[in-house]
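User: Can you predict the 3D structure for this chain?
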Amino acid sequence: MSSAARKLATYADVLAAPEHVIAQLIDGELVTQPRPAYPHARASSKLGASLDGPFDDGIDGPGGWVILDEPELHLGPHVLVPDIAGWRRERMPEIPDVAYSELAPDFCCEVLSPSTAHLDRVRKLPLYAEHGVAFVWLVDPAAQTLEVLVLDGAGYRLASTHGKDDVVEAVPFHAVPLDLARLWRR
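Assistant: Here is the predicted structure, written as structure tokens:
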């Protein structure tokens, strides 16, 4: 079948995907991936916990954010599931009682794995930029790195790169130091 005749996937295809996969809709294509391996899950869990207390709950930090793990985002025709997303409270004063958000977040984090790095970098980053996500973090548990990207026009500029056991103050969460070693510890 030619690509012109290809049937575009819909949200119904996302809903029909098996429960044990993460289903996303990108440029009319259903993209599925298995649940992440433990190093990926560990990095994502520890990072989410590190951001939640000071930035969402305001415990030992400034508050002012809504931080969610794996929220479903409907950005135009695309359905994306970042590992972590955050909205400034002035844009999302309270968490709505919905299954997905059409409000683009201010921050997204993708935890890279060999099977998802291309998708996250090449296909999802431009969509985040198109929808005005101001900050994206790319966390690579295998390389033990954090790349901090800042929206600059139509694309992202690399603001900083950190690794291993660095303690960082990275935008937009620079008010509280983040110990990267916690993300990689096994």
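The radius of gyration is 16 Å. The domain at 36-184 is CATH 3.90.1570.10 (tt1808, chain A).
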